[in-house]
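quick one, 110 residues, struct below
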Amino acid sequence: MNPPSGQIARKAGRLRQNRLCEQLINVQGQVTQGVLNQLRVLATPAAHRDVSRLLGPNYCQLPAIYVQVDTRADRYVYQLTHAPHRWLVVLYERDQYVGYAIWDEPRADE
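---
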């Protein structure tokens, strides 16, 4: 079940404010427990297009970071359907999937 649009807007605002979401891509960008389990066993590196096919459209994109000095890392965000207060952040370097992290939703007072 999807949250009402007001809840989505508040979540998007907090994510943008606290996690620096650059742009909202798809407010329905969610990942199920089954898909997360498939991602957990996926060998790295894997092609960005293959991982995108598995995950579907992302919720938003965070600003790029540099994990290694000369390598740009792109970060895509998905909400977890089984834990709507948590977010899957997928990391790509040079168009290759290299890993993920799970973030708790920022609190309203953060």
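The helical segments are 5-19, 33-40, 48-55.
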